[in-house]
């Protein structure tokens, strides 16, 4: 539908007005006629941008014209925002009314239409084009948001939405995102204010506040999901995870949930989904260093209490109740990395402690046990419970061998097995480095510069504390070597199973656990990730041959096979897949004969 002559004239007049420089002197108590015209013309342009009758081709033309003129518009808008908002509250009723209209129109001027037809490669979020034209836009949005947060202004929801839209848009342009957040103090100050708002307002049932909180939970999710790696540590910090853990505990508490009104309860479902996703992506980035403190803060127990809110969503009363996946599925997904991280005693111990509490007081898990067997959360919890108990037994078996572990490279007792549980000395500062007698600890500190490692561990990765201890590392090696021996013993059985499956030309539900040895990326904290067979077979260029002598030097039995050729092993994985087996790469060898050996600790089930 063509644009009317009157609208075209108003739009042309608006662009002519914004070519005139703003006044050099502005009195916030008495807005001038020029400033009033600026607001009226900004209203004209924002209405034109929101015209629902425009086709996508017309929208592109309107956006192109608006983007070309935006630097001129921006001069007026930024000047008014500075005088009426950033420099403090206007002293008169007239000035306050002008400020409130300005906030609404500023929001409308940077957040507008989406294309209805599939976007082309040249289409980008409109506000992204504006930020590229005027790099000062995002910092000013952030400054206005800060000011409204301090004043608890009624237009805060508008600025939350403006911030949400601009953060989402600039994440599509990594260079722009980095430039926006390159100020050292900007991200920590922003996250501190965001956390403060969550702590202060989570109990509120006011509709506007509930909407602001939704943005407050969405923004950390965007950061955890799409932030460039070099900046992610600025946003997903220990303090942020602690805040979200507190919110998670509050929202899943049955007493708190039942006291919330229908509207607040609906929003609570969505908040929890955002928090679950943030935890999931944080775990992918920080690994067990993020998971361990969440478990210590009662994550598992909070999940068990979420039955009321799960039932609320499944009854169709929650906000976006029909959306997929459900809250129960997202909560189940929180268990995905746990099995992989059970080699860390700081992950395993809180899980075992929760299981002990449930054994003493079965009512803690009564709601979950009453769920149908098909409930994804119930299935995930049952698997995790069983696997945690199995790993605990293996850990006890490993510790009963009494392996002497000592970080002092000069220690002559290292590697000796005493046959009984050995009591270790632990560095009280980093709590990751293990020694046998105290004199080894003093020697390592004085001669081998343990201070440097201690400081690295205490600082952590992105302010999240390093979790892997020397005992955990030795347990991983023991665990992987144990399964390597089992794998060698069962090689012929696996081959016979493959032949039988091929002969029957069918499939089987049998899961074949494959042990393999390959290099993994060097990181401060090992990347203990699940490796699919597809990923494995595309990484054969990184594989290495391990000779019997090298394997024996790492603690293998004398009767090991001559050579393990991983290129051939990758081919076996493909053969097993074709035969219908579910294949899981169960352990990965890292390092050469004289280097430190680290193993991926696998989780032998899928949720």
Automatic annotation (TrEMBL):
Pfam families in the record: zf-MYND
Keywords noted in UniProt: Metal-binding, Zinc, Zinc-finger
Residue ranges annotated for the MYND-type domain, each copy included: 408-454
Record's keyword annotation contains Hydrolase: no
Record GO terms (molecular function): zinc ion binding
Name of the protein in question: MYND-type domain-containing protein
Native species: Tetrapyrgos nigripes
